[in-house]
Amino acid sequence: MKKTILYLLLFAFYCAHSQEAVSYLKVRHIIITGNKKTKPFVIHREMTIHENDSFPANEMDATLLQQRLNIFNIGLFNEVNVNIKNWEEDSLDLIIQVRERWVIIPVPIIKFADRNVVEWWKQYNHDFKRLQYGAQVNWGNISGRNDVLQMGISFGFAQRLDIGYSIPQFNRRKEQVGLSIFYTMLRTKRIAFNTVDDRLAFMDLGKSWQLQKIEITPQISYRRQIHNTHYFTTGYGLSAISDSAFHANPNYFLGDKRQQYFKIGYTFVADYRNVRSYPTGGWLASVNFMNYGLGFMKTRMTTLGFQLSKYIQWKKHPRFSAAAMIKWQFSWPLKQPYNLQYIKSFGYEENAVRGYELNVIDGQHFLLFKNEYRFRVFSFQLSKIQKFKGKNAGILNSSMAYLPLNLYLTAYFDAGYAWDRYFTENNQYKNKWQFGYGMGLNFVTFNSRLFRIEYSVNRYLKKGVYLHFEQPI
User: By CB neighbour count within 10 A (0-12 exposed, 13-18 middle, 19+ buried), where does 393 fall?
Assistant: First the structure.
């Protein structure tokens, strides 16, 4: 980094005093170091400049920063540095220094049967029988091509097996086509069979299985440009419910105890965020389409959606940033199986208005707005602490030293509307504007993991402290 600053100062002096100032700089060589596992072409694929390319000299800072962010967004490295070497007149070499993350990460599974911690704690009195426990192994970068093998098995509230493999660059020649396939097998003795008073209603009838399900989902991705990706999805699902669950809600599978479907879908994502794990600048846009049943099966549903997110960082005070999102989801026909409600309703993962964590709001369509203002309280990394250098070389040479810890103070306002013309009984929150606001703390750490603790108030002045593990926007 010190060498980079020195080169920048020398370059500025040269431009100010030379009659024939250099207008373009040519990259002779790109040298990558620190990639013990990752193939060099995986890193080259993310860069917008390559050997023998030229770029405007007055845009050097922005160009080098963009290369650094692009490489960091691969998700394989704890730290990325882009430096200059052998600068001679209008030519130079680029040195890419990376520090790889851990590739094999065993993670204990401790999940709630419920959608979030607060629902488990308040509505079900933190009943430990509702916990799902097991283990998951994420083996990343197996072949050095940023491919990932995922295996997980869990017991308790539900028995579940997940196996998946994905590789973003399947064709080595052009490095544009990716492939993934995921398989899920699930069975549970407790099932959320309906929505009553805007909350999930569970039934527990002892030892019999209330729901059994298998699903397999292959997907092909096409990424000609590094920021734009097309996803083509297919899949097959087979599910069955018990007689008791069928009698409790005949519309769970629309009048049948079994559900079988094929699905096809397409998603386009334009991702220009600066850091994808927790963006503070740039934007993201996506369009999605999915059809269940292909027009000839009993389960028939089509969804269409759009999302636009914008992130702004204050240049004068980079600790301050803001984020905004609008998301629209539409589906047809109006008569739909209850078990697919999570796709186009509020209350599931990021499709939620904060302040309604105890609720789900069913519908066939929704419109969601989110706004968040952030202040970075501190950014901590062990390797950057001066007193650790020298005496603790062993620690600083390990991946542990490069795991970040960032803390953000946030304030937010969400608003959303869910349209429902089919599931109309016993629920009051749909077909009305709902909104929530509050403040929170966001912790971003180990392999870009996010932990949020928020205090929210909704339209009806119901207040609460909520915990989350996914990005809000």
Answer: exposed
**Tally of helices (H runs) and strands (E runs) in the chain:** 6, 22
- Nearest partner of 363 among 325, 417, 304, judged by Cα: 417
314-351 burial, b at 16+ Cβ within 10 Å, e below that, comes to: eeeeeeebbbbbebebebeeeebbbbbbebbbbbeeeb
Range with the poorest average pLDDT among 280-284, 393-397, 398-402, 453-457: 393-397
pLDDT of residue 407: 92
Whole-angstrom CA distances from 394 to 144, 382, 400, 402 are 25, 12, 10, 13
Measuring CA to CA, which residue among 288, 331, 279 is closest to residue 307? 288
182 is written with which tokens? 């995921």
CA distance 387 to 393: 11
Q: For 200-224, what is each residue's pLDDT tens digit? A: 888 766 678 889 999 999 999 999 8
What's the pLDDT score for residue 415? 98
Task: Judge contact between 156 and 132, C-beta under 8 A.
Answer: yes
Instruction: Please give the Cα distance from 245 to 260 (Å, whole number).
Output: 17
Separation CA 204–CA 210 (nearest Å) = 8
Predicted confidence (pLDDT) at residue 394 exceeds the cutoff of 50: no
- Give the separation between CA 203 and CA 200, rounded to whole angstroms: 10
